[in-house]
Every structure is written in structure tokens, then in C-alpha cells.
Design a protein that fits this description.
15 helices, single chain, Transposase_31, 2 domains, about 300 residues, Putative transposase, YhgA-like
């Protein structure tokens, strides 16, 4: 266990309850019947360690036992409060200690949470014990707390949220869209949606900078110059967005920058199919971009852009 006892209460409590047969008698007598039926006290084993905070060890002591509960690992955590006035936060503390015991169990390479039964041994001046042992009663609204913590927690699963729905999420839409697709899709396939969201003006300059940094670090596109050129041109905030070259310079990767830029240019020229360029040119035109800008961004002759317009 931990360091030597610091109080008479601590010393006598541990001297008795660290003894296996004494502990079995204590638990056999004091565990509520429904919990006693769960526990095979013949498997009771004293565990090392304490979950009491250093600042409270002068007022509280604890002992942890492992025990089989219906064939599964479980724990009994006994806390003694040896101060004259009861701690109003004790119910919450015992819940926190129980979670700490669960965490330690998981850290020992287990995949399932064990049942941890907290037990308070009280011998204070006020009698009977004047406080609730239900941690829900400590909340401003116990009933609301029960609804929150006795039900599955809220989940935002962006992987199954339709893109059309994400596009309606105002200021958070651009983040959700990137988080959903950053690993699976060429960023070029998101360009039209990103441009639409940027044009709506919900995203600040600093957020746009963070967005581009994230895309550069985690995203992928075969047409980097084209993609980031369009994104930069749609930026409306006061803070300038980082260019691809600037990003590599800041990372101290000048040689890699040069190689990547050359590779991207070759890929744009040699590998991107003509119909894909035309498709993006039509999208840019529908967003109101000038024919000259469209020709430059889509790497198409101006005459070909004119044909698309007509």
C-alpha cells in the first residue's frame, strides 16, 4: 500500500481491513444483499494503491479489493472518512474514485470495464449520516443529470452525415466537410463546396489560414496549384492565406518544395483529363469567375473557355 499511516484512524482501519478474513466479515455483513449475491468473497484480494488525493489523506483512508462478480473481475472500494464533519462532496468523490479504479483496470490491458462498488465507512459526530450517498443529488438538477448520465452520450458521427446536410451547418460546415473527407477523397472533388462555403462569409481569416494548413498537412490532391490557387482567390478575410510555397518555406523544406511544385505542374499538364478540366471550368464559370481567371485556373485555352460559355 502507500506511505505509513498519518492518523490513528488510518492506522487502525488499515490494520483490520488489510486482513483478509476480517475484510470478508466486514463485507459479508455490510454489503447490501443484492450486491453481496454478486460477489464471491472467497476470491477477495487486497489491491495496492490509494485513490485519495494527497490533500485529503489526513481526513480519509481507502482500501481496494478485487473480487469475482458473477465470474467477471470487479472491485470493492472502501473509504473511511475520519473527520468530525462529513464531506459534502463525498458522493462525487466516491464516483471519481470508482472511475479511477476502472481506468487502472483498463490500463492493465483489459477491454471491458469492471464493476466497482464504492462503500463509505462513516464514524463522524453527526448521526445518522446527514448527506445523500447518491451523486446525482449533488447536481443543480438531479433529474436532468440522471437523463444525461443514464443514457448514451450525444454522438456527432460526421461520417454518415450527408454532404447536403453539412452544407447547411453555417459556421461549422467547412470544418465538418473537411473532417469527413480529408482521408478518403482528392480535395479537388470538394472544391466547389469549399468555394461555396467560403463565399458565404461564415469563416474568418484566421480560420481560413488554419483550414489551409490542415489541408496541406493532411489532405491530398493531384492538382495542388489549381486547388490552392482557387481557395486563395476566394479568401475574403483580412489575413492573407498561406501559399503552397510559403508553407514549405516555413517548414524548412525548400528542396522538397521545389520537387513537389515541379511534380504538380507535370501532373496537371500530363495526367488530368480534358473533360475533368472542362467540368471544373464550368463550375468556376457558374460561380461568376471571369473567363480569363477560369482559363488560368483550369489550365485551358481561352478559346476553349469561350466554347464552354457558348
Amino acid at each position: 500500500m502507500d506511505a505509513p499511516s498519518t492518523t490513528p484512524h488510518d492506522a487502525v482501519f488499515k490494520q483490520f481491513l488489510m486482513h483478509a478474513e476480517t475484510a470478508r466479515d466486514f463485507l459479508d455483513i455490510h454489503l447490501p444483499a443484492e450486491l453481496r449475491e454478486l460477489c464471491d468473497l472467497d476470491t477477495l484480494h487486497l489491491e495496492s494503491g490509494s485513490f485519495i488525493e494527497e490533500s485529503l489523506k489526513g481526513h480519509s483512508t481507502d482500501v481496494l479489493y478485487s473480487v469475482q462478480m458473477q465470474g467477471n473481475p470487479g472491485y470493492l472500494h472502501v473509504v473511511i472518512e475520519h473527520q468530525s464533519k462529513p464531506d459534502k462532496k463525498m458522493a462525487f468523490r466516491m464516483m471519481r474514485y470508482s472511475i479511477a479504479a476502472m481506468h487502472r483496470h483498463l490500463e492493465a490491458d483489459h477491454d471491458k470495464l469492471p464493476l466497482v462498488v464504492p462503500i463509505l465507512f462513516y464514524q463522524g459526530e453527526a448521526t445518522p449520516y446527514p448527506l445523500s450517498m447518491c451523486w446525482f443529488d449533488m447536481f443543480y438538477s438531479p433529474e436532468l443529470a440522471r437523463r444525461v448520465y443514464n443514457n448514451p452520450f450525444p454522438l456527432v458521427d460526421i461520417t454518415i452525415t450527408p454532404d447536403d446536410e453539412i452544407m447547411q451547418h453555417r459556421r461549422i460546415a467547412i470544418l465538418e466537410l473537411l473532417q469527413k473527407h480529408i482521408r478518403q477523397r482528392d480535395l479537388m472533388l470538394l472544391l466547389e463546396q469549399l468555394v461555396t462555403l467560403i463565399d458565404e462569409g461564415y469563416t474568418s481569416g484566421s480560420q481560413l489560414v488554419a483550414m489551409q494548413n490542415y489541408m496541406l498537412q493532411r489532405g491530398h490532391t493531384e492538382q495542388a496549384d489549381l486547388f490552392y490557387g482557387v481557395v486563395r482567390d476566394r479568401e475574403t478575410g483580412g489575413e492573407s492565406m498561406m501559399t503552397l510555397a510559403q508553407w514549405f518555406e516555413e517548414k524548412g523544406r525548400q528542396e522538397e518544395r521545389q520537387e513537389v511544385r515541379q511534380e504538380v505542374r507535370q501532373e496537371v499538364i500530363q495526367e488530368v483529363r480534358q473533360e475533368v478540366r472542362q467540368e471544373y471550368a464550368l463550375r468556376f464559370l457558374s460561380k461568376g469567375m471571369s473567363r480569363e481567371d477560369v482559363a488560368e485556373m483550369a489550365n485551358l485555352p481561352l478559346a476553349e473557355v469561350d466554347k464552354l460559355i457558348s
